[in-house]
Specification:
Blueprint lengths: L1 H15 L2 H5 L5 H39 L11 E6 L8 E3 L3 E9 L7 E8 L4 E10 L3 E7 L2 H4 L8 E8 L16 E9 L21 H30 L2
Parallel strand pairs: 2-8
Antiparallel strand pairs: 1-3, 3-6, 4-5, 4-7, 7-8
Length: 246
């Protein structure tokens, strides 16, 4: 009885083993080494892409550096040549309330500014009057200044001397001029005047006419004329008496 029972248990244990487990192949040490090396090769495959990106970034940097222009330090700074009014003309005067036109071109300019500021300065009232802010650069430029008080929006224009200032908008007006770059131009001066109100002819007085002199001025003028007459008569009498002696 003991023998058959033992054989039945053995057959049961062998039937419990699943076909999947039976057909599953065992991994060898060579297979484990191959599986471990696979991610490493994938990582190594990405390395050339990163290297290519680094090289392309370096090439872009070199390309940007090659576009940077160098200017000979011995060259003069860029300047302005006035066209309207002409730099050779005498001092120009403009009436407050009129439109004033300025035109110019540039000289000795190796590096062109992207934007330009134009304004007028008056030393008498320490005021500035903007004409053009961040204007586009043009080889030959011109601006029209409306001098009406409501147009300027700043301090009233005086009967004074003014200075036209043109400079690179990206730099401060007090910046030291660099070779080939536009420096602050402030060499052109002009005058502004305010017209006087209309005065009727019967109320107008000539400042240089005798009728416009006060009583004190008239007395001073009479005294000067009297002294001149006394000097002339005294010299004549002295000269006549001196001639009689000879």
């Amino acid at each position: 009885m003991d023998g058959p029972i033992q054989r039945r248990q053995d057959s049961k244990e062998s039937s419990d083993t699943s076909p999947a487990e039976t057909g599953k192949a065992k991994s060898t040490p060579a297979d484990d080494a191959a599986n471990t090396a696979a991610p490493t090769k994938a990582a190594e495959t990405k390395t050339p892409e990163a290297t290519t990106g680094a090289k392309s970034g370096t090439q872009k940097t070199k390309s940007a550096a090659s576009k940077t222009s160098t200017v000979d330090a011995r060259l003069p700074p860029g300047g302005v040549n006035m066209i309207t009014p002409s730099a050779l003309a005498q001092t120009s005067y403009y009436k407050v309330g009129d439109y004033v036109t300025f035109a110019w071109n540039y000289t000795s300019l190796s590096i062109k500014p992207s934007k330009v500021d134009v304004f007028v300065s008056c030393q008498a009232n320490s005021a500035t009057y903007p004409i053009l802010n961040n204007g586009s650069f043009e080889p030959t430029a011109n601006v029209v200044w409306d001098t009406k008080p409501e147009a300027s929006g700043t301090a009233p224009l005086l009967t004074e001397t003014y200075t036209l200032i043109i400079h690179d908008a990206s730099k401060d007006i007090t910046a030291i001029p660099q070779a080939g770059h536009l420096g602050a131009y402030n060499q052109f001066q002009f005058g502004m005047y305010t017209p006087q109100p209309y005065t009727p002819l019967d109320k107008w007085k000539c400042a240089t006419c005798s009728g416009a002199l006060s009583s004190m001025d008239q007395q001073a003028l009479k005294f000067m004329l009297g002294m001149c007459m006394i000097t002339i008569l005294s010299f004549t009498w002295f000269a006549g008496g001196f001639g009689a002696l000879f």
